[in-house]
Fold TonB-dependent receptor.
Amino acid sequence: MPARPAAGAEYITAYGKTAPLQAVPAVGGKLGLSIQHTPGTINVVSHDLMMQRGYAQAEAAADSAPGVSSGGSPGSPAQLMMRGFTGNQILVLHDGQYFGPTTMINRPQNSFNLESVQVLKGPSSVLYGQGAVGGTVDMRTRNPTFDAPHANALMSYGSFNTWNAGIGGSVPITQTLALRTDFSRTSSDGFVKGADPHSDDFTTTLLWKPTSKFTARLSMDYLTDRLSTYYGTPLVDLSQTGGRVGGLLSSSKGLGITRASLWRYYNVRDGKAGSVNATPTLHLDWRVNSHVLFHNSSYFIYSKRRWNNAESLTYLNSPGSTGAAGNAIAPGRIGRDRFYVYQNQHQVGDTLHAQFDFSIFGMKNRFVLGGDAYYLRFIRNRGFPSADYADSVSLASPESTQLGSFAGEYPFMKSPTTMVQAGLFLEDVLTIRDNLRLVGGFRYDWLSLDRQNYTQAGQFNAATSFKGHYNPDNFRIGPVFDITKNISVHGVYTTGEDPPGSNLFLVNRGQFTRLSHSRQGEIGVKASLWDGRFTTTLALYDIRRTRMLVATGPDTVATAGVQKSRGVEWQGDLTLNRHWSLSGNVAYTYSRYGSFHPSASVDASGNQVPDVPAVTANLWAIWSRVGDLPLDLGAGMRYVSARKGDYANTLSLKDYALVNVFAGWHAYKNITVYGRIDNIGNKHFIQWADTSYPSEVMLGAPRSFSISAQADF
């Protein structure tokens, strides 16, 4: 459910603003606490804000939160960075449900179908079991309403032949039954031509409310997609090629990117990166009386995913390399692999909890007790040629070749994995005084993992297969003190325990013996000032994570070690008057490894964590009703400081600042036409350096424009 107003609070949605502190986002837990009274940092990006800023997918909305950035790699399509942690160390939920480890399981979500994107910072094992250490992102779908019929539509066209379209609406069928359906489609040729991503997302929800005390909500989300198949631009030896593009990176090994390779597509012509996902869910709420509430959520997940690409790109600077067919590869060409993986996932789960309101020695108390369980069956089939390189292409003019078939690829290697988890949890908020609350929680889990591997001959591989049983227990506790009615300070200590950081379905025998452990301390302040015109939050945190694993290649992991992160995050939203509003945030992150050995040849102890900028900042300004005309003008700026691109810290990615502008014309009542220019300065920058593909980097999108029409009735 979307962020909702706290009981008795006035909830006003201001144009161009994020959620007020009195909103109650579901991602914060089951106690029904407002943002102000949750001992932790929560950011909510509403549907209206996503549409206004032109965020076509949820990852872009998450990027607008303090200290968050995304990866964009098709191998890990939902990869986010938060509080110094990346990949599966960020938990992604859909309406509060866990779908599995983030990077290969989750898919980019079209923002049109979403009510909000909610971000909770720090470990969340107490709340969700599989509690990733950096934070949790919950993508909440739109719900039906009973007040009247509503309809929404979106049509957008922009650079690179990019189309976005959506249509949806809510209809009260009877006084007790309402229906909402949304359909959206995105498609593009891609800013690297040939990548051509697209997705279709259909969401429908039936809401039944026979009495004021009982609600049943049945939903179905059906998503099909093809991810961008741009896997990166190869790093080359500049001493041999010359033609360096400045302002992108520096390397102690003399590596760089040449002008001849910018915006080149090095994948095969018929690359594949698609999926089909169906997720029915049923939510039941029963208010027994003013003191007791029961909630139950049941869900089923079916997903089929297919990758088949040339993913690893290696610049060959010396003779002696050969392709899978035995042909010599000339120096100066790009050697390519082939890698395919087919995934089939079935998951069924249920969560039941009860909420009790009562008094303890005259103090108000709310207590939540519940349990959840799920069964996950994940079958992974994969293969790659039995050669270092399948083939090669030209650096300056990569040939448009097909996938082909190579010795060693087929038959595939099969790895069925079964994961069963059950957990008991409790949460509690004790109102010691009207201005002082103590919030706590505890969770105990039973996790069973059965990983089976089979050879290409179909024989069971006992040497790499394993079974494991794990019993993590975690807690959080922290006070919230109201200095005034609208200013609160909080502190919280949280622990987390979960699979150790690499993709769980890559791990083999001997690589995964104990769960990763993390702990976080956080203090912060939240305030609403100037009659609600200025809302601000400030948080300082310190995180330590131990017993980590790390992915070292497309199908390998290694024991690593310890990671530490500390930083500060600030968010502010200011409405000067009915014409002017400003919103911004800035985050500083200090993230380093402790004892950390990602491979036998690399000691990264003390090094900076790859893809983690020390500073990220966002700023938006909106001038509404310019000259009392039905015209809005807006501008946004995003800054990302320099980052490291590899574990050894030999590769440094340059900082960048992007400026976006838009104009909105309210052509008719409830219809707005937007024109946008993103990256107006056409800044060339590197968005991500995937450590699983160390010989290439992901370029960010160049300047682009779009024009869109939005209608709400």
Q: What stands out?
A: Residues 1-16 have pLDDT under 50 and may be disordered. The longest helix spans residues 47-53.
